[in-house]
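hiii, so i know i said id send this last week but things got crazy w the move. better late than never?? heres the sequnce for the chain we talked about at the cafe, plus the structure i predicted for it. fair warning i was half asleep when i ran it
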Amino acid sequence: MKSAILALAAFGLLGFTALAQQEPARPVVRIDDAVLKPALAKAITMTDMCGELYPHAQRVADVAALNDIDAQFVGRAAIWWNNTYDTDDDQRHFQRAFRVTDTLHLAHPDRIVQAGVMEFIASKSGGVLGSSNASNIKIPKWVWDA
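okay and structure toks below
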C-alpha cells in the first residue's frame, strides 16, 4: 500500500514538473472564507482607482472616504486592460498600483484590494491575436506576497 501511494505521489510530482515546464507556475492563493466573508460584508467597487487616468485629488478623497466607511474589500481597484508586452507601461502600472495599494493598507493593513489583468489583448500591429498574451505578463512578486 505504501509503495502504491509513493508511486502515485511520484507520478503526480513528475506530472506537475512536466506541466510546470510548459507554463510559468503561478501561485495559487486562496483567501480563507473566515477572512473573505466579513471583508465582503464591507465591500465597495472602486474601478481602476490605481489607473493613470484617475485624478490624484479624487484618489486622495476616495481613500479618505474608504477609510471613513471602513471598507475592507476594495473591488477592481487595479485593472490592467492594455497591450501586455512587458513594456514600460506595464511596469509603471504595477508601480502605481503598489503605491496606491500601500496607501489603502495604511489605515487598514488587512484590507483586500482586488486587481485583474483583463482577458483579450491585441497584437502590437493592431491585429487580433489567436490567443491572449495576458498569460505572459510578468506579475511582480509583491502582488503574490500581499
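btw Helices lie at 2-22, 33-40, 56-68, 88-107, 141-145. thought thatd interest u
miss u guys!!
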